[in-house]
Amino acid sequence: MTAKLINPRDIILSPGNPNVLLCPTCNQPWLEKLVDATSDADGQPIIRELKRHDCACEQDKKRIYFDLQRQIDHQIYLAFNRTHGFLDPNYQMHTFAVDNNNNPEASKKCHKYVNNWDVALENNFGIFFHGDSSTGKTFFACCIANAILDKGKPCYPGIINGSSVYIATFTDLINKLASLELSRKEQFYRNLSKADLLVIDDFGSERQTDYILEQMNLILDSRERSRKPLIITSNLAPVVKTNNRATTNA
Ligand SMILES: [Zn+2]
Questions:
Q1: Nearest CA among 125, 171, 177, 176 for reference residue 148
Q2: pTM as predicted
Q3: How far does the centroid of ligand 1 lie from the alpha carbon of residue 58, in Å?
Q4: What is the CA(67)–ligand 1 centre distance, in A?
Q5: Is residue 14 domain-shared with residue 115, that is, in the same domain?
Q6: What is the pLDDT of residues 104-131, one digit of tens each?
Q7: Distance CA 135, CA 115 (A)
C-alpha cells in the first residue's frame, strides 16, 4: 500500500448526498461539506466546515503508521532493556541461535521453558541450573533470558508492554549494591523484584561472609515476595529452597 495524492478533479460526489465527496480510490465518503441552514445573499449554501472522513485508504495509512511506530518502540524497548537489564554485555551473545546442541536434553528443556513462559510467569516457575563449571549453565540461562526478552509482546506507542528481564552474576549484583546510596539501593531492590524474569548467574561463588549472606537473603526474599520467576546458575549443590521451582542439570 503506497500513499497516493488525490487530485481534486478526480473527486466525485456521493449520489445520495451532494455534500459528501467520495474518495476516488476506494469510493468511500472522504470529505463532507457541512453547510449552514441559511444561504448567502446569492442564495448559495454557506460552507461552515469541511469534515474529513476516514475512508479505507486513510485507515490503511493510519494502520501502517501505527504498526511501524509500534515496531520502532518495541526495538527501542528491547535495546533499553538489554542495556540496563544485562549487566554484562556478553550475555547478549548467548542465544539459542548459536546453541551447538552439545547438550540436547538441557537445550530441549530450556526451549520448553521459553515456549511455556506464560505459564511459568503466572505460576512463578523458575530454574536452578547446578553443576561443575564449563557445563553450559550460564549459556542456557542467557539463551532463556534473551528469548524471553524477544518474546515480549510488542509494545504500543508510549506504553511498554514487553517482558523485562534482568541478568547478572551474583558478584556484580553485590558490587552494584555496594556502590549505591541507601535510597537508590532500595530502588534497585524494587527493580530486581519488578522484573518479569531475574537471572542470577554464578550464585554463591562469593566467600560467604555475614554481609554476603545478608545480601543473598535480601535479594532472594524480595524476589520471593514478588512471586515472579527466578533462574539461578550455581556450582553449589541444590540445597537452597526450591518450592515451586523446577530443578535441572545443564
Ligand atoms: Zn479512499
A1: 125
A2: 0.69
A3: 6
A4: 19
A5: no
A6: 999 999 999 999 999 999 999 999 999 8
A7: 23
